[in-house]
Design goal:
This protein is an alpha/beta fold and 223 residues long. The protein has one domain (6-218): Rossmann fold, CATH 3.40.50.360. Helix content is 37%, strand content 17%. The protein has five helices and seven strands; from the N terminus they run E-H-E-H-E-E-H-E-H-E-E-H. The protein has helices at 18-32, 69-78, 95-109, 131-144, 170-197; strands at residues 6-11, 36-41, 81-89, 92-93, 119-126, 148-149, 156-159. Strands 1, 2, 3, 4, 5, 6 and 7 form a seven-stranded mixed β-sheet that branches. Helix 1 (18-32) links the parallel strand 1 (6-11) and strand 2 (36-41). Helix 1 crosses helix 5 (170-197). The longest helix has 28 residues, at 170-197. The radius of gyration is 17 Å and the shape is globular. The two termini are 27 Å apart. 36% of the residues are buried. It comes from Streptomyces bungoensis. This is NADPH-dependent FMN reductase. Keywords: Flavoprotein, FMN. Residues 6-157 form the NADPH-dependent FMN reductase-like domain. GO terms for molecular function: oxidoreductase activity.
Length: 223
């Protein structure tokens, strides 16, 4: 039996609030399309901050800090699509999401870019200001990881202040719906390509690590 396709959402909010409500809305859309949906709430994950070792740009193996990041990274690798969702805090990305993208990106994802060609979607939630800036930051993070970014026309930014307000932003939720539907379409197209061709190397760029000063043959990722 063929495994069901899956979208994994990374929720960078410290609360079970508006961002979680938006992701529950996204889950309902994906599930109507026959795609599994799981949210990882970073507030429930043990996240260490990047440490003082300072050797990130010289390491050729994953980070030595022990926390919950490797488990979340593996869930991302196992998924077909990934949504990054975060609220605006202090005119920027909520600290949980910032910590996660630093720890995951620098500590684990840069060595062989295992998220390459996975379908990505971005959601930001804001009272009013900086929704676009946070959306843009998460977007370039997805592009850095060589993901296939799917949009909704207008960015999937949702405006809310008090708990429950996100579900009143009809335009924002419509953009989320369009984004999830297009993610499912792209995931299905890629899955069909793999099944028909037996290939999983489409859209490769050759090199696996773009860091300056480290030769490709120095990349050593444990099996």
């Amino acid at each position: 039996m063929t495994a069901r396709l899956k979208i994994l959402a990374i929720n960078g909010s410290e609360r079970d609030g508006n961002t979680a409500d938006v992701l529950r809305h996204a889950a309902s859309i994906a599930e109507q399309r026959g795609v599994d949906f799981e949210s990882v709430d970073l507030r429930t994950v043990w996240l260490e901050r990047c440490g003082p070792c300072g050797d990130c740009n010289d390491r050729t193996i994953p980070c030595a800090l022990a926390d919950g990041v490797p488990g979340v990274v593996q869930k991302m690798i196992d998924a077909d699509g990934i949504i990054f969702a975060a609220p605006v805090h202090g005119f920027g990305t909520a600290s949980l999401m910032q910590t996660f993208i630093e720890r995951a990106g620098v500590g684990y994802l840069r060595f062989d870019r295992p998220l390459s060609n996975k379908v990505a979607g971005i959601i930001s939630v804001a009272r009013r200001y900086s929704a676009g800036e946070v959306w843009a930051q998460l977007t370039v993070n997805a592009l850095l990881n060589r993901m296939i970014l799917v949009g909704s026309g207008f960015p999937a930014t949702v405006h809310a202040l008090h708990r429950g307000d996100a579900l009143k932003d009809d335009e924002g939720l419509k953009n989320v719906q369009r984004m999830v539907d297009r993610m499912v379409d792209m995931i299905q197209l890629l899955d069909e390509h793999r099944r028909l061709t037996g290939r999983d190397d489409l859209l490769t760029s050759g090199d696996v690590n773009e860091r300056v000063g480290l030769a490709l043959n120095e990349m050593q990722v444990p099996a």
